[in-house]
Amino acid sequence: MDKNKLYMFRAIELARKGRYDAHPNPMVGAVIVKAGKIIGEGTHLRFGGPHAEINALRGCVASPKGAALYVTLEPCSTYGKTPPCTEAVIKAGIKRVIIGAQDPNPANSGKAAELLRRAGIKVKIGSMAKECAALNPAFNKFMRTGIPFVTLKAAQSLDGKIADSAGRSRWISGPEARRETHKLRAEADAVLAGIGTVLADDPLLNVRGVAVKRQPLIVVLDSSFRVPADARIFKNERVIVATTRRASVTAIKKPGRTVEILVLPSGGGGRVSLPALLKELGAIGVAHLLVEGGGKVLGSFISEGLADRFICFTSPLIIGGVESKSSVVWPDTLNAERKELGVRIKTAGVKRCGEDLMLDFSLNPETFPVGRRAPAKPWSKAELCSLE
C-alpha cells in the first residue's frame, strides 16, 4: 500500500471513533502530514462539536503550513453549528488536500474543492472513495432524500421464530448478541417498535452498556393507541407515539419527560403509514432509524420497500410449533402477486456473537418493493443546510 493510502486508511480508522456520538452528522477522520510524518490527527467525535479537520489542526505538534490534509469526507463550506472547515484549512496554510468521498449534501457537494482550489490549494478527490463512503450509509441517504436510513433488527431461532405460540421470547439470543443490539441502538438516532412488542415485552429500548452522549429517540407504532401510560418506554427522555386519525387519543403526561403523539394517515390494514412516518422523522433530523418490531412490523418495512439493512441474530435454538411467531410476516396475497419466490437480499457480513450468529444483509429498496412505495421527495438546499 502506498503512503497516500496509508494516511487515508488512518483517517478512516479515526473516523470510526465517532460511531456512537457523531450522528446524525457523518463520521469523519482527518490526518495532517508534513515532511512524511503525521503531525496532527482529528475525529468528528460528537454532533455539534468541532469537525475532524478542526480537531486535527488543533492537535498539530508542528506548524501545518505547507502540509497535506487527508480527510475522509469533503470539508464543509457552509455555516451550520460550526464555522466552515474550508476557512480554517485555508487560514492554516495547508497546501494539499486529499479527499476520500464527496459530500452527498447538494448544498456543499463540490463546493469545498472549488473554494480550496481558488485559494491555491491542490485538491484530489476520490482517494479510497468506496471505503470512505461506506463509513456513512445513513448520512449519505439522508442527505440525498431527507428520509432516514432504516436498519431492521431481529433475534430469531434457527427455524426463523421470534416467539412461541404463547408469546415467550426471552431469551432467544445470548448476552453477546444482546450487547451488539445495544451498539446498534447507540448508532441510531431513533429506535422503533410496534405496539405488539411494547405490550408483550414492555421494553425500555434505550442504550445500556455503551457510553453515549445522547440516548436515541423512542418511536412506537400504535395505530389504535393502546399503549399503557405506565409502559417502561416512558422512562426515556424522548418518546413519540405514532398513531392514526381513527384512534381515540388520550394525552400522556409524564413529568420531566417529552412524549409526543404523532397522528398520521393510515396505511394498509389501517396501520400507521410508514412512508408518512419516515417523512416526519426525517423532518426532525432522524437520519438513522433502527426498527426492533415484531414480524409484522419488519415485514411491512420490507414489503413496502422501505428498509436498507437487515441485522438478524440467529440462535442455535429450535422453537418449532404450528402457531409460533415468525421473524418476518406479510400477507400471503403479496407473495401470490409475485412471479419470484420471496425477496432475495445481499449478504454483507457474518459475525459470531457467543453462540449466536449476527447476519448482516443489505437491501435495495429501489428494486424490490413487494407492495407500493411512495417516492421520497428530495430536500431543498436550505433545509439541508439547516441540519448541519
Detailed description of the structure:
By secondary structure, the protein is an alpha/beta fold. It is built from twelve helices and 16 strands. The chain has helices at residues 3-15, 52-58, 85-92, 111-118, 129-133, 137-145, 175-187, 195-201, 274-283, 295-303, 332-336, 381-386; strands spanning 29-34, 37-43, 68-73, 96-101, 122-125, 149-156, 161-163, 190-194, 217-221, 238-244, 258-264, 288-291, 309-314, 325-326, 346-353, 356-362.
Key descriptive features of the protein:
388 residues; alpha/beta; nine-stranded mixed sheet; five-stranded mixed sheet; 12 helices; 16 strands; disordered C terminus
Short summary:
This protein is an alpha/beta fold and about 400 residues long. Helix content is about 25%, strand content about 25%.
Based on CA atoms alone, the radius of gyration comes out at 23 Å
Q: Give the count of helical stretches.
A: 12
Order of helices and strands: HEEHEHEHEHHEEHEHEEEHEHEEHEEH
Alpha-beta content class: alpha/beta
Question: Reading side by side through the largest sheet, how are the strands ordered?
Answer: 11-10-9-8-12-6-13-16-15
- Fraction of helical residues: 25-40%
Largest sheet: 9 strands, mixed
Unreliable spans: 371-388
Beta content? 15-25%
- Inertia-based shape: elongated
